[in-house]
Amino acid sequence: MLCVHLVRRSLWCRRAAGCANGGGGLCMCVCTCPQLELIFLSLLLQLRCLLLPLFLFSVVSWKSDLHYCTRHLFLPLWQRVTPSPSPPVSLFPCFSLSRFVQRIPLIFVAEMIGAACSSAGKHYRPLGTLKPIHILNCARNYMQGRQILSQSHAFFSVLSNSVSFLSSSRSSYSTHRASLVRTACLLSYSPRTPSSLTRPAAPVTPTRGYCRSTIYKQTKSQRIPLDNMSIEDCRGFDEVNALFHELGLDIPILHHDEKATVEEVLDLLQKKGINAAGTKTLFLKSKKGELVMATAFKSTPTDLKFIQKVTNTKDLRFASNEVLQECLAVVQGCVTPLPLINNKEGRPITLLMDSSLQSSTQPLAFCMCRNDYTAVITFEDLKKYFEKIGYTYKLVDFGAASADAAVTGGSAAPAPAAPAPKPKKVSSEAASAKRGAAAGAPATAQSGETKLGIAVKREENFSAWYIDVITKAEMIEYYDVSGCYIIRPWAYYVWKCVQRFLGGQIEKLGVEDCYFPMFVSRGCLEREKDHIEGFAPEVAWVTRAGDTELEQPVAVRPTSETVMYPYYAKWIRSHRDLPVRLNMWNNVIRWEFSHPTPFIRTREFLWQEGHCAWAKAEECAKEVLDILECYASVYEQLLAVPVVRGRKTEKEKFAGGDYTTTVETFIEAVGRGCQGATSHNLGQNFGKMFDIRFQDPENNEQTLIPWQNSWGLSTRVIGVMIMVHGDNRGMVMPPRVASTQVIIIPVGITKDTTEDARQELLASCRRLEGELREGGVRAKCDLRDNYSPGWRFNHWEVKGVPLRVELGPRELAERSLAVAVRHSGARHSVAWDAQTPVAVAALLEDVQAQMYARAKATMETHRVRVTEWAEFVPTLNRKCLILAPWCGAMECEDQVKKDSAEESKAAQAQETREDARAPSMGAKTLCIPFEQPEPVEGHTCICKGCTKPATTWVLFGRSY
């Protein structure tokens, strides 16, 4: 350590003397002779390695010394030992504090040796990719081969012993082995099972690094389970890099932490001063096994229907991890065109490139087969890469408004030939349309087809259908923060209806509205031990204000127990202070990382949460059920959605509460349940946690803990409503929450219609609108003359307006209205007279009742009672909810979920299993219904292998 302190002291003296050279003092002396430099460095490193066993776990005390030593002594040495004017950009990637603490001091020593002794022209391999023994061996071999520091055998002996000591210290090394060892750089060690890997006949030598790499190939039977795969299982980095060098391409490659999104990569590049365009790559597989890769700018829409037209495929869906491993040897999140080099078996892959990429003035950012490396490459260099690996591509205008954009061939060499599809018999009209599209002319649209219509069938791809509906119906708009969405007026009106309806009901119960701040301190949040276990991964923290780090970070509330209850403890002193019954309408943040879905699962959402405290347990329990009934009314009376009232199992209940009650909904198209709202009885748990007490009215010497409940309902109600009622034409709005209940559209205006007749028709539409509004009907006229009546029909059909009134010259003459019902397609003729508003209002109520009845019948049809395990999975795969007997054991609950997932997957044919639409998720307990079908006595638990008698009927199902 003396040498290091001498360096730091001399450096301080040099700066005090006004020297501009940052490596002054002792460094200036030793830098006059390269041989002396190496001897000094060797001596310094020997001292550090001799002390290594004593300081192995003293990383913090070493960090500043090693940082000074490396920066102010080793850097000048590097500039003289190697021909390169300066070390590579990635020479010291680990000297930030966060990465430093994750490394062992020995590895830094070995890194400096390996870097100092690497040959000219070799690129530095980042430390995180190698084992210490590899660096040590390579450094020793290089030094002995060049006869440099040949006297330092004792030094290498000490270092070898330290490596052995470190390897035996599994507790310190194994913690970070996943980040220190890459699959592509294994020599004799694998973090996976060594016996599962087979060594090829000849190892591959990469151009990067000073360590010979051996690439292992896994047979299908030896494949690592897909659930355990990470970027360490990605291959191809060294091959791609070697190919870049072979082609003479100077491609900047940036090493960084794992990045989950393109935005994160672009932010990092911008901070590094690198101007590059973000890209996205879709790797798709059809039901027949055809593979398609499509690459475009990240902001360019990539419509699957368009891709299917361009590639002449059907039912394209995102490829699974298994397919990615077989074809590209990468995992999800690491897909770009670069891993095409891993397609050793030559599986035909159709490659589509957005034409705007070719004309881009910016280089393109692609992850380098792993999402912790980013390559910045121009399109011209990418073309050379495609030519070298033997792939052709098609330039496609993804940004074109028409789905029949022209397709032109690229200039690359031909790819492995795909098997020619069998010729199909097509009609003359279809053939004509095809020829027109090939020539660049748009194909003739089918009758009734418009660009406004929903492009995806609900039964074919429910997720894509849902996104298509909520965007085209103007319910949401995407925001530039992932998982957050703009709620547009058409959807926000639904939430306003919920607020009015539910707010009125809970006010009648005696609950008052209030508002608490959205921030919560770490101290308050961590007091809720049981509760915080469930929410800790979702909490968003504020750590900085402007350029200043906060002394204590604050969390954005995921829920408000920890915000409100410290003040309940302040306000509640006597039994006269009870009950406290507060409700709050607010927004909360839960930083969901796994596939957010608008309205259903988002990072920010609107909701109401009620928190009440009672003196008696019976009063608290009664309110729990009263509120649950209010929630059921929101769904059934307002949204026309049936629910199942029930109680959650111990495994599924709210953490920290005594029990949780719930209303569960059912999405027939995917056969899944969806939790609609919950009401929790917290017992006295939170009172004890936050020391909420009041004086016992019967004994002034004692204090009692109040009984509490909490309950909440969110904007998820909007998503459930859309999923339950929507169809292939778009939204279907229940009349009671529709912003516009009746849309009035003038029809029958032709070129022969006189201006007076036209104006009279438009005036009649306005007059009808006014009459309906006065009668309490939310009506609106669409008099836009720049759109045809058919276009306007489609527009309001997608938005789901319950009734459409068509008013033309004939209707005016007959004083009648032609009314089309959205949910059923039925048509009615309603007399236009003084009773018209009453008749229309009655028709709207009929529509509301019919929508609820249809949804209720659907749920009842798909709720099946099962008592034998042999019937469980087949019933589940028919997209049904299952009412089954259960013994109440949590182990059986877990086992049912596991067994149903495994058997569901095994029961499906290969073709169906590869279909992303096929059900494969296991069944979980949704609730214990309050309405039990019959006594459960005499039945055994549904769990396979369990012989215990059942204690209750429980509702199983797949869920959101």
Structural overview:
- The structure is a single chain.
- This protein has 960 residues and is α+β, with helices and mostly antiparallel strands.
- It folds into five domains: 2-193, no CATH class; 237-419, YbaK protein, CATH 3.90.960; 485-725, Bira Bifunctional Protein, Domain 2 (BirA Bifunctional Protein, domain 2), CATH 3.30.930; 735-849, Rossmann fold (3-Layer(aba) Sandwich); 862-959, 2-Layer Sandwich (Translation Initiation Factor IF3).
- Helix content is 38%, strand content 19%.
- It is built from 33 helices and 32 strands.
- Strand 24, helix 27 and strand 25 form a beta-alpha-beta unit.
- It is globular, with a radius of gyration of 34 Å.
- Residues 1-136, 142-228, 401-450 and 909-918 have low confidence and may be disordered.
Detail the topology: elements first, then pairings.
Elements: H1 2-16, H2 26-30, H3 34-50, H4 52-55, H5 59-81, H6 97-100, H7 105-116, H8 132-146, H9 153-168, H10 170-173, H11 177-180, H12 237-246, E1 253-255, H13 262-271, E2 277-285, E3 291-297, H14 304-311, E4 317-318, H15 321-327, E5 349-354, H16 355-358, E6 364-367, E7 373-377, H17 379-389, E8 394-396, E9 407-409, H18 428-438, H19 462-472, E10 476-478, E11 485-487, H20 489-509, E12 512-513, E13 519-521, H21 522-527, H22 529-535, E14 540-545, E15 548-556, H23 561-571, E16 580-589, E17 604-614, H24 617-638, E18 644-647, E19 659-667, E20 672-683, H25 685-689, E21 694-696, E22 699-704, E23 707-714, H26 716-725, E24 742-746, H27 755-774, E25 779-781, H28 789-799, E26 803-807, H29 809-814, E27 816-821, E28 827-831, H30 836-861, E29 863-865, H31 869-877, E30 881-886, H32 890-907, H33 910-913, E31 924-929, E32 952-959
Parallel strand pairs: 2-6, 3-5, 5-8, 12-16, 20-32, 24-25, 24-26, 29-30
Antiparallel strand pairs: 1-7, 2-3, 2-4, 6-7, 8-9, 10-11, 13-15, 14-15, 16-17, 17-23, 18-19, 18-31, 19-20, 20-23, 21-22, 26-27, 27-28, 30-32, 31-32
